[in-house]
Amino acid sequence: QVQRPGARPLLLADLANLKRFSKLLADALPVDYYVVFSELGEVLEAELDFLQEAQAMEKLGAAVAFAPDGSETPPPLVIPRPVPGLVSPKVLVMDFIEGVSLNNLAEEAKKQGVEPGSPEAKILGAKIVGALGEAYARMIFGAGFVHGDPHPVNVFVLPGGDVALLDCGQTKQLA
User: If you write DSSP's letter for every residue of 125-156 in order, what string do you get?
Assistant: First the structure.
């Protein structure tokens, strides 16, 4: 990943404008959006620092490699690792993950002759849900450190049906 030049100041300026508008319109809005945009600002600050994301990748990789009881066990999914020496606040080089995002999985499966609703598709779906469920159980009940952005673009299905979880810029340490 490479952060685009000028991305940080542009995002932070947009966020500042949203916070200003939310204060001006506070009486007309049903929710205090200033609080919402302030929280978003904290998340964006973390997501814009690739050094922090690299650390999160390592922590998440360790979190899924241990059962909640602390015993080491094969991880249910892949978390790419950063390449040592090739990470800076604006550049993140990590393991290459070959696969397809959940967003594109149905289309790719059709190309390979797997129809939606078929027994093969159901087996693959169960494998994906099982891997994500086990990984999140380990994150929540074991390490207490959780990947906070598991939308379909960040979940990859690898050849053979294994799962990878990408984009570790949003995480949360549970109490």
Answer: HHHHHHHHHHHHHHIIIII-EEE----GGGEE
pLDDT for the residue 175: 75
* Pick from 101, 173, 116: nearest CA to 143: 173
Residues sharing a CB contact under 8 Å with residue 68, sequence separation 6 or more, in sequence order: 137, 138, 141, 142
The pTM assigned to this predicted structure is: 0.83
Which residues on adjacent β-strands are paired with residue 145?
173
Listed as own residue / partner, the contacts of 81-89 with beta carbons closer than 8 Å and 24 or more positions apart are 81/57, 82/53, 82/54, 82/57, 82/58, 87/50, 87/51, 87/54, 88/50, 88/51, 89/3, 89/49, 89/50, 89/51
Q: Which residues of the chain have pLDDT under 70?
A: none
pLDDT of residue 161: 92
Task: Please tell me the predicted confidence (pLDDT) of residue 130.
Answer: 97
